[in-house]
Amino acid sequence: MLDPKKRTQHNRGLGMQSDIRTEVPPSSSETVADHQMDSKSNEVESEHSLPASSSIRRVRKSQGNKLTAMLQVRNERGRYLEEVLRDLSEFVDEIVIVDDASTDGTPDICRSYPKVIRLEILEKPLFAEEWRLRHALWQAAVSTSPDWLLSVDADELYSTEAKEAIRDLINQDHADWVAFRFYDMWGGRTHYRDDELWGLHRRHTASLVRYMPEYPYFYPQQNHHVPRLPLSCSVLPGICTELKVQHLGWAGSLEDRVRKYLRYKRIDPSGEWGSLEHYESILDPEPRLVPWKEEH
């Protein structure tokens, strides 16, 4: 069994700041070059001053914590959303969703799951201003009075081991975030991609955070590749685990990957928010793939 307290002490030196900054997914969690996020994050941090810790009432419960999953979705019919919601319903208490003006009936899928307690449907999409979309999702989620928030994309599945450990990870009173290892599955669910540009699994990605009502949370004002958790979480103590999450955003057909490549080039043609080299690598005909093993 995991010992969260020992892991926190051991990993404090890693720094949540680097963990959040290097995890920079858009709505489907695709990775991009880390340095792009670093420079943008520094600009935003200088605009916000955190109040003294003594002025913040930090509510930390060691038992009975409510776990709320939060998702932003757009046109997910026929992809992975139903599987993800079915899976989440097995181990979270509630689910909050913001639908980014879907046109394919995605909200109907969301409504069919009883644990979806709040569904906000935007009339106009915010995908081109992703920081606003992340902020809208955060506000919707915290309005339900959660104890912990799990930020999930509509194509991510937590391993059996991660799901079994998550209650122990949140029912403690010393760490305020938890990071996992995310794997970019490629062309199916049997292999993940592992090369110079695709190494999300080699670092820790924070996706689970304790909510403290009086703590200041904010996202960087970026139009694309916005981190899933507010940047101000980075100064809080956390836990880095070896628990695994499958990212299925690249697990589809070659045609699906080409469509995503074209979308990236259209949205970010100059590489302002991401890495052009990384975008081009999507079309690599022979990427290095490694067999997937759920447990370590």
TrEMBL record:
Database matches in InterPro entries: Glyco_trans_2-like (IPR001173), Nucleotide-diphossugar_trans (IPR029044)
Domain Glycosyltransferase 2-like, residue spans: 74-198
Signal peptide residues on this chain, from the entry's feature table: none
GO molecular function, one term: glycosyltransferase activity
Stretches for region Disordered: 1-61
PANTHER family: GLYCOSYLTRANSFERASE, POLY-BETA-1,6-N-ACETYL-D-GLUCOSAMINE SYNTHASE
The protein's name: Glycosyltransferase
Taxonomic path: Bacteria, Bacillati, Bacillota, Bacilli, Bacillales
